[in-house]
Amino acid sequence: MLIGQLLEDHRAAKPAIIFEGRAYSYAELDDLSNQFAHLFGKLRLETGDRVSMLIGNEPLVVAAYFGMFKTGVIANPINNRLTVEETAYVLGHSGSRLLITSPEFLPLAVSAVETLDVKPAILLLGAAPGVAVPVSVLSDAELFAQPRAPRRVEGLTRTTPILLIYTSGTTGRPKGVLLTHANVWADGLALSQGFRLTEDHVALCMMPLFHCNALIVSHIAGFIARSTILLVRKFSAREHWKLVMDYNVNSFSAPPTVLAILLEREAEVRGADIRLDFVKTGSAPLTVDLATRFEDRFGKDILIEGWGLTEGTATSTLNPLYAGGKRKIGSVGQALPGQEIRVFDGQGNTLPAGEVGELVIRSPTVMLGYFRDEDATRNTIVDGWLHTGDLGRMDQDGHIFLVGRKKEIVIRGGENVSPLEVEEVICRHPAVRDAAVGGLPDRIWGEVVVACVVPATSITEQELQVYCREHLADFKVPVRIAFTEELPRNATGKVLRRNLTQFFQPAAEEVSS
Question: What is the pTM of this model?
Answer without folding.
Answer: 0.87
